[in-house]
Amino acid sequence: MDDIVVRLKKVSGQIQGLVRMMEHGEPCDKVIVQFQAAKAALDKTYSLVLNSSLQECMSHHDSENMEKILKLISKK
């Protein structure tokens, strides 16, 4: 879980940087590159959380929570 928190803090920093870039009128190409980096970091973190949650459910034979997770994924 510590890795996830560290990753989320980094994404938060990237988002704050994006806000500053927008406020200062940075060129669109630089903003888009930073958006892509933040999105990729968030997507990777999401994958890690999802993988961890599914593994935990599987190890505890928790089909109820597994179904909840799968329903959440399908809403994407």
TrEMBL record:
Which InterPro entries does the annotation name? Metal_Tscrpt_repr (IPR003735), Metal_Tscrpt_repr_sf (IPR038390)
Q: Name one Pfam family in it.
A: Trns_repr_metal
Q: Which domain of life is it from?
A: Bacteria
What Gene3D superfamilies would the database entry show? Answer: Metal-sensitive repressor, helix protomer (1.20.58.1000)
Signal peptide location: none
Report the family membership: Belongs to the FrmR/RcnR family.
Protein name per UniProt = Metal-sensitive transcriptional regulator
Please tell me the species this chain comes from.
Answer: Prosthecochloris ethylica
Record lineage: Bacteria, Pseudomonadati, Chlorobiota, Chlorobiia, Chlorobiales
